Here is the input.
Amino acid sequence: MKLKPEVQKEISRRQEKQLKVIFKQLSGSDRKSLTEFLRSGQAPGSKAYKALKPNVQKSVLKLNLSTFDIILKRSRNPITKFRVKMAKVSYQSMLKAAS
Here is the structure.
């Protein structure tokens, strides 16, 4: 899905703030695994995601949920909104399962 530059900028700003908070909560090896996972560009649910520790999995899901909130707020297309809402519900269920 192609996003407008201002939406991309808002997403990156929010994720940077969240990453600062998350990095304070994680240990050194968890920080390293989170950084490697984010750089790999893989999605939650992949083999690499399932290999992560539960607290790192929660961090990844929280980052993605914040992205969905921004996209829902900025999108006007009803089909896009529906797709994002469905993805958000599935990520929320994954977050509950990881708890």
About this structure: The longest helix spans residues 5-25. The radius of gyration is 14 Å.
